[in-house]
Give the backbone structure.
Amino acid sequence: MKSILKITVLLLVCSSKLFAANGTNYVVLKKTLPLFHIDSVKTNTTDPNKTDPKKTFALNTKNEADIIISEMDESYVAEQLINVASDNLGIVYRAGGTTKNGFDCSGLIFSTFRKFDITLPRSSNEMALIGSKTDLKNAKKGDLVFFVNRGQHHINHVGMVVEVTEDDVKFIHSSTNSGVVISSMNEPYYKRTFVQINRVVE
């Protein structure tokens, strides 16, 4: 099963219109704002209430922009987003950057989701308007975390949650001083400048 999942992930980067045949139930990540929902897709067997591993699984083509994820919960999607973002650890900060030549904070998040053909707003302030707000104590991997810093009066920094423990939440982001790094919400600066956390994958 692990080999099947790896192949699927590689294909996801290349195309959002995939067809495959195996015993896995496919799900679709809906690209509809303000929240991306994961819905089950039925097989193309004669009886829609039964699955037959010998039959070919077909995409629900009602929305051609849907993305195939071969797992049944949002945690798989979040892990893949984290993997893509983490590949950029150590890359320098660059204002307006969305490539490995350098990222700004929203550029890192924007390019990460774009790998899965999901287009988020380009600025952190606009990103904060999508999804659903949740409490920090209920944070999950893949959530977006927002800050107001440098004396600004509106949201101007964003990261993505990569780890949640009983007493800490860690997030990946591109900071002006250190580039792409993983930081902790327990750090005094981020405690002070934290504004909200949004769930965009559910």
